[in-house]
Amino acid sequence: MAGVVKKVEDTVDVSLESFRKILKLQENVKEIKFKKLYSKGDFLQCVKEERLFKTLSWIDKSPFYIHYIHVNNLFYTLVDIFDSIVGIDEISEFEYYCRMKSVFYCMFKDKAEALQNIMFKYKYPNLQKENIEIFCNELLLLLGSRREMKAEEKFLVRMLARASKSNELVFLHGNNDYIMQENYAEFYLDPILKYQKSKHIFDEETTVQNIVKEQIAQGENVRDNFEFVKSEADIFVQLSDVVAGILGKMFKYINYTSVNQQLKDAESLSKLQEDNILLIYKLRMDAEVENRGFLHSIAPLAEIENLNRFFEMVKSRKVN
Length: 320
Known about the structure:
Helix content is 57%, strand content 7%. It is mainly alpha-helical. It folds into 2 domains: 2-72 and 182-319, no CATH class; 74-163, no CATH class. The strands form 2 sheets. A 3-stranded mixed sheet has the order 1-2-5. A two-stranded parallel ribbon has the order 3-4. Helix 8 (132-143) runs antiparallel to helix 9 (151-163), helix 10 (185-194) packs across helix 11 (206-217) and helix 13 packs parallel to helix 15 (301-319). The protein is globular and about 65 Å long.
């Protein structure tokens, strides 16, 4: 989920008609949608779009900042296993705790399909207690020999082996069969509750908005700081769709592309690709300086480090 945010005192006078002129759109275009106007392949293909540069440039010059909640689904899935096999007292320092979660994710990343088969077999995340040992042993078998593993990886393998002999994996019981994330309502609720003096405007999402309204109504103080609108009626919701679209492409590229390939890609960028990527970098940095809460990732540290490394590759190319 992603979008744009501004201070209440900042006024912005813009309309779809304005963007028709900026982007040279035909009159029959009733709405700015990322998939229709900007999405032509993967991330590197999308940043070839002149329309993207013009849109990002407009956001950069406006009072708006970007914001996002980025979720790596595999990491999100693995965290419950990690938290079930490692005790809080065993990794007390928060930064090291985050680092170890990232290591755990990286151990399984290239085995995602086999991991998903094991999870499906045991109705993850609703693991039956009688299946704890065999579930953990299948994960250990998937990881293979420890001979070439680093010390941190060997530690996590020992934790998994120890867990195979336990009577409980605390976060993996009493859940719905096969369902890791029933809906994404929590990611809508978080900013509503965190920034209570702000006005939050979301694109209509029938299932999610009903859950959000219901949960807000059940709280101690009913909030009226949010609304769901039809995207075609709100140009800023449409701009948010562009931000969400290109960031989604970017994170997918970073997550599935090796560092060596990223380096090769960075060296062969066109000027327009380079300019678009550096605009994304600038918008991201400006948002972080304004409010670190604008950028939220539920992802392994390695993925964030890879993203920052990629930006540095592109920046150094610009200098050279």
